[in-house]
Each structure stands twice: as structure tokens, then as C-alpha cells.
Design a protein that fits this description.
This protein is 22% helix and 25% strand. With 203 residues, it is α/β, with parallel strands linked by helices. GO terms for molecular function: hydrolase activity; metal ion binding.
Length: 203
């Protein structure tokens, strides 16, 4: 199994889009970068599924193009015209060669889910390694309409409660990927979120 960040060099604002190859070739989010279909095609000919962490524009803008090009199954918690499989908390889905549990993690978005396997977490925007606000443990913003810091804190706690001991790789919606003590990174993110301070105080 290999994980490719297809938007690492994007010149437009987008989330990280991860192509996970293996038994079930999977795209984690579709992003907002024009040309994502070509980027997928540089690695694989077929795409089995797309799993959505949530449906903010920077995560789904290119979903129409991806579905048109590859006709994959689409797994999502919230309703979407392209959704073929509805996710609920505790459901499992194959991502590459790994079985991942969908953990409902609202706060940044009310339809947010994170995908947690035995060695890997795809955390979307609920918790990230680095994002310009904090290094080595940060969390999704909660200062916009429909967002909730309290729900986000509960979501991070839920991840920690259900995180297997062997998780050593974190692929988040923004910032860099992380390999190492993932639990400690998430604990630092929780500590910072619990301060209830603005994430971006200048805004």
C-alpha cells in the first residue's frame, strides 16, 4: 500500500488529496485542484472508491470530475448527489489494503468523519500535524458559522478513545503528513483546543 499526496504542489487553495493504492484503490477527499483527474491517472488506471472526510468546498470541488472520469463508489456521512454508500459512526471501509473505522468527528463540520486503521489515520480537518497556527499538533478551525469548539474537543477525545496502539501515520486535510507518535500529536492538539483561545487571533 502506498499513499500519494496529489495536491502537495497545488497552486490553488485545496485540501490534501490522498490516493491510497492497494487492494481497494481509494481517494481520500477530492480537493479543489484543477487537474486532479490527470494526477490520479499518473498513478492508476482505475479508482475503486472515494471516501469523504467532509464536504467543505476545498474537499469536494473536484468530485464531479473524479466521478465522471472513474465512476468510483463514493462514501460519505452527509448527503451528496454522488454518494453511493452512507457512512455512520463505527462503519468500516477498505482504504488501500487497510480496514478503517469511520469515526464521527463533528465540530469543524457537522458531517465530518475520520478514518482510522490499525496503522493509519486519515483525520481530515479535525486534527492536523501542522497548519501555520500550531506545529506538532493542531486542530480544525471552529470560528465560522455552524462550527463548534466544544464538539471538536469531544471529537478529538473520541479519536483518542478509539485509536489503536499501532497507528504511526497521520494524513490530515491540511499541513504535512506525520509518521511517529501519532497519539502524542493528537493529545497536543486536544490540549491546545481545550484552551478555548482563537486559533487565528488576528482574524
Amino acid at each position: 500500500m502506498a499513499v500519494h499526496n496529489l495536491t502537495a504542489d497545488a497552486e490553488t487553495f485545496t485540501c490534501n488529496v490522498f490516493l491510497v493504492t492497494g487492494e481497494e484503490t481509494t481517494l481520500v477527499d477530492a480537493g479543489a485542484m484543477p487537474g486532479i483527474v490527470d494526477a490520479i491517472g499518473e498513478h492508476v488506471e482505475n479508482l475503486d472508491r472515494v471516501v469523504l472526510t467532509h464536504q467543505h468546498g476545498d474537499h469536494v470541488e473536484q468530485l464531479d470530475a473524479v466521478v465522471e472520469a472513474f465512476d468510483p463508489d463514493v462514501y460519505a456521512y452527509g448527503e451528496h448527489a454522488h454518494r453511493t454508500h452512507e457512512l455512520s459512526d463505527g462503519d468500516t471501509v477498505e482504504v488501500g489494503d487497510e480496514t478503517c473505522e469511520a469515526i464521527y468527528t463533528p465540530g469543524h463540520a457537522d458531517d465530518h468523519v475520520s478514518f482510522v486503521g490499525e496503522s493509519t489515520i486519515y483525520s481530515g480537518d479535525v486534527v492536523v500535524h501542522d497548519d501555520g497556527a500550531f506545529e506538532d499538533g493542531s486542530f480544525g478551525r471552529t470560528d465560522m458559522a455552524g462550527q463548534s469548539r466544544e464538539e471538536l474537543i469531544e471529537s478529538i477525545e473520541r479519536i483518542l478513545d478509539r485509536l489503536p496502539e499501532g497507528v504511526e501515520s497521520m494524513y490530515a486535510g491540511h499541513g504535512g503528513e506525520f509518521h511517529g507518535d501519532v497519539r502524542r500529536v493528537i493529545e497536543r492538539a486536544l490540549e491546545r483546543a481545550e484552551r478555548r483561545e482563537p486559533k487565528y487571533p488576528e482574524e
